[in-house]
Design goal:
Blueprint (H helix, E strand, L loop, with lengths): L7 E7 L3 H12 L4 E4 L15 H4 L46 H9 L7 H14 L3 E2 L7 H9 L19 E4 L1 E2 L1 E2 L2 E2 L2 H6 L8 E4 L3 E8 L2 E9 L2 E12 L2 H11 L2 E2 L1 H6 L6 E2 L12 E6 L3 H12 L8 E5 L10 E6 L10 E7 L7 E3 L10 E3 L9 H17 L5 H4 L2 E3 L7 H10 L35 E3 L14 H18 L1
Helix pairs in contact: 1-13, 4-13, 10-12
Length: 504
């Protein structure tokens, strides 16, 4: 751990989050002098008393140490965009569901001019990351009564019971989730990747170190400007790897003079690289959470299980297909049982539209790195109405499951969207009035060849036109995979680390 900021490092990793910790560990093992700069605290290794209880508790989502981002007035309702500001990043917050998607997702990345990213090339990295993250798979008999009810009843609409969600060639079905939970603890990338290498002399980790911008001279990154404890510091480096995620990485680049020239000039920032794709192409999988009143029988069954001390909110998931993607799948069904609500009955299942067409952006508002950026997802804004229609089809499929024999008495009456959104037109109005996110923002530093005017980085993560500067996190995804993005984020770290080591 670095108590004081060093003046220089071989490689600076900006952000000790899901992807950044993978990069740092792989470089350190290879003998590269590596400094991790994390804007939030570094709580130390697993077992340290400094770790907040909510970041460890795998039964529910983490909440503390959040960046505080939200939609502001860009959407009909204010939507929180939770992101963890702490070592481990969003692997501290997530529901621990580890899904891979489908081979078409990654083969499309490769076909768009990004060699090295095909499904067959990434599969060994998924396997390796799964091992290191200590991912295990729930068995059907381990599911809570609420989760098991949906898993069993999915067959009523033709969703077969699957062993796993993570066959890259498989299509629809309900399965117990794969998860990174160890003895009830959310096993984040700080535990999985950093802890085994924390003892190395050439790995340093600095918490409370918020990177303002990257320094660029003559077309090469030479270091970073860091804010720590109210003071500004310069750290020189041979190479900088930005791993701030889809919201923070474009902010760092924009403050560094890398981005759309008009935006930069309006803020008085000298243009270092004309890359209009920085901050654009923001997308996430729009989401709608349905809820039911539940039943006395379900409440009693879940209360008995809670008394035993282990009743996770998430355990099973379905891959389902709308009419827009009948051959593969383009929806997730996510049963959700908020056990921490005590006696309040709110039994839920959500639908996520996995292949959204709507696109938004992230843009800084000032030179102050602590100022919140404009995050405008523009959910459900695609002209054809595809995204809202997919959600509507998902709601209709979930309603069919809920009405099936054996389920209707378990779930009780529908509370949300409820009877006022019974027909397709009313349902679409409800969906558009209540946009929500699936916690999977991507795309704001999109990967593609230099000939693509919207691409920010090449297939190796190198920022176009700036030597010694890379981005490695979900922001480089040109399009989102049919997945929860936690494991793909780890794989991005593995893939870009190998590119970096091949060219050092």
């Amino acid at each position: 751990m670095a108590e004081h900021l060093p003046r220089e490092a071989g490689t600076v990793v900006v952000g000790g989050g899901t992807s950044g910790n993978v990069i740092a560990a792989r470089l350190a093992v290879a003998g590269v002098d590596t400094l991790v700069l994390e804007a939030g605290p570094d709580f130390g290794p697993f077992g340290s008393a400094a770790w907040p209880a909510d970041l460890l508790d795998a039964t529910r989502l983490g909440r503390s140490h959040d960046w505080g981002y939200d939609s502001g007035d860009t959407l009909p309702t204010r939507v929180a965009f939770e992101r963890a500001r702490a070592i481990g990043g969003c692997s501290d917050f997530n529901g621990t569901t580890q899904t891979w998607g489908h081979r078409r997702d990654y083969d499309a990345w490769a076909a768009a001019g990004n060699p090295g990213w095909s499904a067959d090339e990434l599969r060994p990295l998924f396997d390796e990351a799964t091992r290191i993250m200590r991912v295990k798979r729930y068995r059907a008999e381990e599911l809570t009564p609420w989760q098991r009810a949906w898993y069993d009843a999915g067959t009523s609409i033709g969703l077969p019971r699957l062993e796993t969600l993570n066959d890259l060639d498989q299509t629809t079905g309900f399965a117990p989730e794969d998860n990174n939970i160890v003895d009830g603890v959310r096993w984040n990338t700080a535990f999985a990747y950093l802890d085994p290498v924390r003892h190395l002399e050439h790995l340093r980790i600095a918490g409370r170190a918020h990177v303002d911008r990257v320094l660029v001279r003559n077309g090469r990154a030479t270091g970073v400007v860091v804010l720590r404890d109210g003071e500004s510091h310069v750290v020189r480096a041979d190479r900088v790897v930005v791993c701030g995620g889809a919201y923070n990485s474009p902010q760092v680049l924009q403050r560094s003079g890398i981005g759309e020239p008009t935006l930069l000039k309006e803020l008085g920032i000298e243009v270092v690289a004309d890359l209009p794709g920085v901050g654009e192409n923001l997308h996430d999988q729009p989401f709608l959470l349905m809820s039911w009143a539940g039943s006395e029988a379900m409440s009693a069954a879940m209360s008995r299980l809670r008394a035993g001390g282990w009743a996770p909110d998430e355990q099973a998931m379905a891959k389902a297909a709308s009419s827009f993607d009948p051959d593969v799948f383009d929806m997730h069904f996510l049963p959700y049982s908020p056990t921490h609500r005590g006696e309040e009955k709110r039994w839920s299942c959500g639908v996520g539209a996995l292949l959204p067409r709507s696109r938004g952006h992230v843009r800084i508002r000032s030179l102050d790195p602590e100022d919140k950026p404009l995050i405008d997802h523009r959910f459900l804004s695609d002209p054809e109405g595809h995204d809202a229609q997919v959600l509507a089809e998902g709601v209709e499929q979930l309603r069919a499951i809920a009405a099936s024999p054996g389920m209707r008495d378990v779930v009780g009456c529908e509370l949300r969207p409820g009877p006022d959104a019974a027909d397709r037109g009313a349902l679409l109005r409800h969906i558009r009035a209540n946009p929500d996110n699936y916690w999977h923002p991507v795309g704001t530093c999109g990967m593609g060849p230099a000939s693509d005017p919207d691409a920010v980085v090449g297939q190796d993560g190198q920022v176009h036109g700036i030597a010694g500067l890379s981005v490695a996190d979900c922001s480089i995804m040109p399009t989102i995979p049919r997945a929860t993005t936690a494991m793909p984020a780890v794989v991005i770290g593995e893939r870009v680390a190998r590119f970096l080591l091949a060219t050092r």
